[in-house]
Amino acid sequence: MPFSKHPNEIKINPTQGGKAAIERLVEAYGFTTRQALADHLDVSKSTLANRYMRDTFPADWIIQCALETGIFLNWLTFRQGVKQSSKTSTTEELAQFSFNAGKMIEDGSCVFDTSFLPTNLSSPIVVGDGRTIYICDRKFTEVLDGHLLINVDGSYSVSLITRLPKGMIKIPTAKNSFECAFSDIEVIVSIRSTTVSYLFNKRI
Fold it and tell me: Highest taxon of the source (predicted)?
């Protein structure tokens, strides 16, 4: 797949940042004291105090808190970004991708009211191209005429595909159009609908 696996490299120093991280844990759980945090984590007061004074980063407690509270690891680790997802029973948060020099890169996520999403999405993502937003499905069984996100010789784009006889297709470009065999392209995702950027809530 063309999606970047590691768009941002993160380095965590295990010997620093412990005090601030423990204070964030207290806040995340809604406690008022570090003693309450120690009781919840089932560790002794001295164990927690030792990590706090040594500024040892509590990676294990951070992971536990994220799993228990749903608060984002990025916030618990660095106090960066939003604290918690705004996703509710009436919203859906989708991973977003965008184009960069003909490649697909991960570009945060966005939250949609589910009433705006097409039905029967199996593996939805959002692809942004300028102010145009494509709601796509990574799982599809049939390729019909219409707009598709395709890979042609390593370059990814949204194109209008017209099926022709004998396994051929027609693809328009900015100046003209060309024909090629369907087997010459790779269909990345099926585009289910389009919208514009100001209609959704983007997250980073």
Answer: Bacteria
Cβ proximity of 57 and 12 under 8 Å: yes
Q: What local confidence, expressed as pLDDT, does residue 23 receive?
A: 95
In this structure, the answer to whether residues 95 and 62 fall within a common structural domain is no
pLDDT digits (tens, 9 = 90+) for 101-137: 888 888 888 888 777 788 888 888 889 887 788 888 8
Instruction: Examine the fold and report which residue of 78, 101, 129 is the final residue of a domain before the chain moves on.
Output: 78
The string of pLDDT tens digits covering residues 55-112 is: 999 999 999 998 888 888 888 988 887 677 655 557 788 888 888 888 888 888 888 8
We report the CATH number of the domain holding residue 70 as 1.10.260.40
Report the number of distinct structural domains present in the chain.
Answer: 2
Give the torsion through C-alpha atoms of 72, 73, 77, 78, to 10 deg: -50
Q: Is 194 helix (H, G, I), strand (E, B) or coil?
A: strand
Q: Which two structure tokens, joined as six digits, stand for 21?
A: 């991280």
What pTM value is reported for the model? 0.49
Structure-token pair, residue 141: 């069984």
Q: Phi and psi of 108, rounded to 5°?
A: 80, -145
For residues 112 and 162, state if they share a domain. Answer: yes
Tell me the C-alpha to C-alpha distance, in Å, between residue 2 and each of 106, 145, 204. 10, 23, 20
**pLDDT recorded at residue 86:** 58
Report the C-alpha gap between 146 and 161 in whole angstroms. 5
Q: What is d(CA 156, CA 149) in angstroms, rounded to the nearest whole number? A: 7
